[in-house]
C-alpha cells in the first residue's frame, strides 16, 4: 500500500479561489488587521504570507508592526483601537509574543466578534458547545482535509497527539462535533504507540520531528501531520512520511499539507466575521 498524498496546497488554493468569488459579491471588502510584535523571523514569514493570501483573495489586510520591547499596555491600546474601528472585521495577534507580554491578556482584549483566530475563552466555549460560527483555523483546516478523503467522520476512532490550546484541544472538540470517538494523547501518555495504532484517524501536533513511525499506525488509517520543524536545513513533520506512507491510506506532507489550509481557513473566518457583524 502507498498512501494517497493529500495536497493541502491545491485544496487551499481552490478554497481561496471560491472565497475570492464570494468576496467580489460584497459592496465592501472585508478588512483584516494583523498585530505583530518584535522581529521573530518565522513570525515575519507567517505574517507576510497571510497578508499576501488575503490581498489575493480580495481581503484588505494591514500589518501593525510594533517593536520587540513595546510595553504591554501599548499593545493593548492598539488592540482596543482596532476593536473600536468599525472598518476592521478581523483581528489577529501573531504568536509568539515577547516574554514580557501576557499573551492571554492580549488575546482576551480582542472583541469576540473580531477574534478570527478563535483564541478567546468565549470562542473556545462556543466550540465545545458546538455553537461556533468559526473556530481555530488549523483544526478547521484539518477537518476540511479529512472530509476530502472521508466524507463521513461519524463513528471513526480519532487519536490526537498533542494538547495545545491552538491545535490539540480544539481539534478534539471538532472531531467530537463530527461524531468521532476521540482519544487525546500527550507527552505523559503511557505506551503511546499502542493507542495510536487503534486510530482510524491520527492527527499529530506535538512538535517532535518524525516521532510517528509506521509501526505506530493502523493499516489504512488517515494520518494528518500538523507538526513542522527544521532538521538539517529541511522542513519535516511529526510523522516519518517515508515510513508511514507504506501503511496509511492517506497522509498529509510537510510542507504542503496543513500549513496552506490554516491560512485559507483564517481568511474564511475573516469573511464569516464580516458577515456576522454586518448581518449578511
Description:
The structure is a single chain. By secondary structure, the protein is α/β, with parallel strands linked by helices. The chain has two domains: 28-113, Leucine Dehydrogenase, chain A, domain 1 (Rossmann fold, 3-Layer(aba) Sandwich), CATH 3.40.50.10860; 136-260, Rossmann fold (3-Layer(aba) Sandwich). Helix content is 41%, strand content 16%. The protein has ten helices and eleven strands. The chain has helices spanning 8-24, 41-57, 72-84, 103-109, 121-128, 137-149, 168-177, 192-196, 241-244, 258-277, and strands at residues 4-5, 31-37, 60-66, 90-93, 157-161, 181-185, 201-204, 222-225, 229-231, 234-236, 250-251. A six-stranded parallel beta sheet has the order 1-11-8-7-5-6. Helix 2 (41-57) links the parallel strand 2 and strand 3. Helix 6 packs across helix 10. The longest helix is centred in the C-terminal third of the chain and has 20 residues, at 258-277. It is globular, with a radius of gyration of 19 Å. The mean pLDDT is 96.
Amino acid at each position: 500500500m502507498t498512501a494517497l498524498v493529500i495536497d493541502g496546497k491545491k485544496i487551499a488554493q481552490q478554497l481561496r479561489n471560491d472565497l475570492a468569488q464570494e468576496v467580489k459579491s460584497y459592496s465592501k471588502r472585508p478588512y483584516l488587521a494583523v498585530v505583530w510584535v518584535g522581529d521573530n523571523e518565522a513570525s515575519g514569514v507567517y505574517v507576510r504570507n497571510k497578508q499576501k493570501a488575503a490581498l489575493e483573495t480580495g481581503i484588505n489586510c494591514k500589518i501593525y508592526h510594533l517593536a520587540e520591547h513595546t510595553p504591554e499596555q501599548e499593545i493593548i491600546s492598539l488592540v482596543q483601537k482596532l476593536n473600536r474601528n468599525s472598518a476592521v472585521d478581523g483581528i489577529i495577534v501573531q504568536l509568539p509574543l515577547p516574554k514580557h507580554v501576557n499573551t492571554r491578556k492580549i488575546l482576551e482584549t480582542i472583541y469576540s466578534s473580531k477574534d478570527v483566530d478563535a483564541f478567546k475563552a468565549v470562542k473556545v466555549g462556543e466550540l465545545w458547545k458546538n455553537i461556533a460560527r468559526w473556530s481555530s483555523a488549523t483544526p478547521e483546516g484539518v477537518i476540511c482535509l479529512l472530509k476530502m478523503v472521508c466524507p463521513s467522520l461519524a463513528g471513526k476512532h480519532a487519536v490526537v497527539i498533542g494538547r495545545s490550546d491552538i491545535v490539540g484541544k480544539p481539534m478534539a472538540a471538532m472531531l467530537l462535533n463530527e461524531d468521532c470517538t476521540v482519544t487525546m494523547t500527550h507527552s505523559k501518555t503511557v505506551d503511546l504507540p499502542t493507542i495510536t495504532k487503534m486510530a482510524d484517524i491520527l492527527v499529530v501536533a506535538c512538535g517532535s520531528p518524525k516521532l510517528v513511525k509506521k509501526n505506530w499506525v493502523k493499516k489504512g488509517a488517515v494520518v494528518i501531520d500538523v507538526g513542522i520543524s527544521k532538521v538539517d536545513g529541511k522542513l519535516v513533520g511529526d510523522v516519518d512520511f517515508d515510513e508511514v506512507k507504506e501503511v496509511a491510506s492517506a497522509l498529509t506532507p510537510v510542507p504542503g499539507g496543513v500549513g496552506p489550509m490554516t491560512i485559507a481557513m483564517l481568511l474564511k473566518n475573516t469573511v464569516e466575521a464580516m458577515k456576522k457583524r454586518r448581518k449578511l
